[in-house]
Amino acid sequence: VVIEHLNMTIFIKVGTIMSYDLMVFEKSKAPMFYEDFLNWTSEQTNWNESRDYNSIDGTSPQLVSWFMEMKETFPPLNGAFSATDEEIDNDSDIERRLTDYSIGTDIIYASFGYSADEEADRLVPIYAKKHHVGLYNPQTCEVYCSGMVYGNMPT
Questions:
Q1: 14 has pLDDT over 60
Q2: d(CA 129, CA 47)
Q3: Phi-psi region of 60 (alpha: psi -120 to 50; beta: other; left: phi over 0)
Q4: Residue 71: helix, strand or coil by DSSP?
């Protein structure tokens, strides 16, 4: 942003949102109450597990099923399932859909390109329900998971 004031030009750097993030989680491992859930999510996203966060090895079967279906529309940037050069050459839209997945034992944190946010917002909940995993939207602090008690969620 450029502001001109009293014969001076002032430049202000404005931040840009680079990704649209969603997290799916193993419902049986997540705390039941909202505040506990937020603390658990914070611990999970410290990425302190001794594992390769690009690998599905050691991840719950439900999360693996969700990931295997998601990767067909939103291929991973890294790991064994990342898009090949041939796939990138043959699909002009694939770069927009490349997704950075951080795969833990009990969560998968997906960072979508901001240009893919509407498509991600449409598909992620469908696949979360289909594969019986919970869904957390860190942008809105909303949690979608049956059997949990959250009360009033902050906006």
A1: no
A2: 25
A3: beta
A4: helix
